[in-house]
Amino acid sequence: MVTTVKPNTSFDTLRREDLFRNPPKDKSAFPALLGAVKPHIESFNAITAEGGLLDLARQDIGVKLLGNKLSLRIDKIYVGKPKISERDKTTLRREILPAECRERHITYRGKLSVKLGLRINDGPWVSQDREVGNIPIMVRSNRCHLENLAPHDLVERKEESEELGGYFIVNGIEKLIRLLIVQRRNHPMAIIRPSFTGRGKSYTNMGIQIRCVRPDQSSQTNVLHYLNDGNVTFRFSWRKNEYLVPVIMIMKALVETNDREIFDGLLTTKDMENTFLTDRVELLLRTFKGYQLLTQKENLQHLGEKFRIVMGVSPDLSDVEVGREFLKKIALVHLEDPRDKYRLLLFMARKLYALAEGTCQADNPDAIQHQEVLLGGFLYGMIIKERAEEYLESIVREVQREVQRGNVLDFNNKEHRTRMFQRTSENIGKSLEYFISTGNLSSPSGLDLQQVSGFTIVAEKINFYRFISHFRMVHRGSFFAQLKTTTVRKLLPESWGFLCPVHTPDGSPCGLLNHLAHKCQVITAPSDVSSIRKTLVSLGVTSPATSPLPHSATLCVQLDGCIVGWCSPKLANVVADTLRFWKVEGSHGVPLDLEIGYVPISRCGQYPGIYLFSQQARMIRPVKYLPLDKEDLVGPFEQPYESQHMLNSIPQIFYPSLRT
User: Where exactly are the transmembrane stretches of this chain (predicted)?
Assistant: First the structure.
């Protein structure tokens, strides 16, 4: 068969014309290119999906109380598709497309509204919808009119046939939220930083830092500081102010415990002969005696009394309730069970003492194994959450002012409620449009980020390669551009397959502005790890609730920052190898993209343990198995496979993450 090609017609053109006339089932002419914008679009879709990030954020905001008479909450947050009102017909709203926004130099935005719930005393909840502005909508997201359109449908709407989306249109300009490198979530890192010594007179340069991420993707960083006398303090930042609390106070406020239990939790039977550790742990417990706080209730009451003003809670709450709110909002927020928080604090203190003793080396925060990507959609949702919470607090403050003036408030009257809400109208959409337009973050809390500017860029269309590279770029952060050190810009060998070693600009952003490798992917949805705990128990891992732990169980097994078991160093190697094999095999409920990090015991190396990660924002890369002989392939229990069928059943390509 001979194919006739017209003059001046390339094979690429023929392929594009064929795809235009006969679009594939996924309505995507270039599925490979869609992989570049996939993290941007899917992270934005996660905000507005059913049970998505906005619903999780609404639950985390909770109920705002005014005395014991008025309760306020957000029942629902709606994000509508872009519409526009005609000037001569203000009541008529029609759909608007991105092409019209570019031509008219306006913003492609949809209506944001919230359903407020209000209750008087113990009466029924009353709901009322309120519009809080119009927010920019990402092109080709689930709130865009171009979602899932075929190439010929895109052309009919004045778009290019290979329109990818993943950006916003603000005042007719295409803007993109750049990907940022941040610390890996829910993993305690041992850090040596000279700035730690400026926290106080006896503070050293050693600490354990953990960036805890809530289910709605907002984060809170906690740090344990090591002092010269062996004490440990708990540091956190709240509304751009730093606070220091004795770590023993946090431990005793979380659970009902005593000094003996804390002593046994920090030291194993093997450590009893180590005078360096025993002396410092004993001094840590003796120093806290000066507070004269013995029970859990007394510690909660003390925390609530000291942080009542800081937390901004209702004055009618008791000190104990304020203390519980403090632990929920600040201390290891990625965990819900106080007992899990208590166990992780013990682990962090034990790792800090190992760092001070020299048996554990500091982790490298510039290494990619301790980093993840802050996706633009997740950052967008964090801003919406903070603005929505401020809106609730503004209503509470307005009601307080009315009460102080002696005015009568009738919230059972709908018209009266409407007038009250109109006085506290919050234009959340305006602040989000300012964020996308300027790239500057105006936030009272700082959102646990090190920078306040440089979050967005213009998606330049100088040429197609320049345009598509914007979606693959990852920036270390504008904070690091001012540093004099070169370690942050160093290209480490473990970045192979994750970051491109060539594609970085010259000048000041060199080494700070990198690009994802061709095959690197960013996870935007958590994996199903519901059966991992049962799988670990079947492999012989000891439950963390076991008391006392076996003498040989010295290695910790963590899943997304939660201690799920302990095992011996010999068993840890077997557990890690077995999980890796089951992951590739697709059995025992181990997901394919589960990250398995096994750190064996070494002399002055990284702190040992098995660390499992399954949540969003991780970078993964494809890996191929090398062909092995049947007699060389040994199972996790040192039993060779007997059939060639089992050897052939191993998938040839899988997606493990960094440490596998």
Answer: none
On the CB side of 105, CA atoms within 13 Å amount to 0
- Residues 428/436, Cβ–Cβ less than 8 Å: no
Q: What residues contact residue 431 under an 8 Å CB cut-off, 6+ apart? A: 383, 387, 442
pLDDT tens for each residue of 88-97:
455 567 899 9
Q: What does the block give as tokens for 137?
A: 């909508």
Burial of 162 (0-12, 13-18, 19+ CB in 10 A): middle
User: How far apart are the C-alpha atoms of 160 and 162, rounded to whole Å?
Assistant: 5
Domain chopping of the chain, boundaries: 14-177+375-515, 183-372, 532-654
Place of tokens 């190898």: 577
Q: Is the domain 183-372 a CATH 3.90.1110.10 member?
A: yes
Over residues 257-305, the pLDDT tens digits come to 999 999 999 988 778 888 899 999 999 999 999 999 999 999 999 999 9
Which tokens go with 393? 């607090």
Segment 614-653, tens digit of pLDDT: 999 999 998 875 544 444 444 443 333 333 333 333 333 3
Is-above-0.85 flag for pTM?
yes
Among candidates 560, 565, 555, which has minimal Cα distance to 529? 560
> Rg (Cα) of the chain, in Å, rounded?
28
Q: How does 549-584 read in b/e, with b if 16+ C-beta sit within 10 Å?
A: beebbbbbbbbbbbbbbbbbeebbbbbbbbbbbbbb
Q: For residues 575 and 560, give the distance between their C-alpha atoms in angstroms, rounded to a whole number.
A: 17
Q: How far is CA 176 from the centre of its chain?
A: 19
Distance CA 259, CA 264 (A): 9
Nearest to 175 by CA among 147, 138, 140, 141: 138
Cα gap 330→388, rounded to integer Å: 19
CATH tag for 532-654 (out of 3.90.1070.20, 3.10.20.30, 3.60.20.10, 3.40.50.880): 3.90.1070.20
Do the two domains 14-177+375-515 and 183-372 of this chain adopt the same fold? Answer: no
Burial tier of 454 (Cβ tally within 10 Å: 0-12, 13-18, 19+): middle
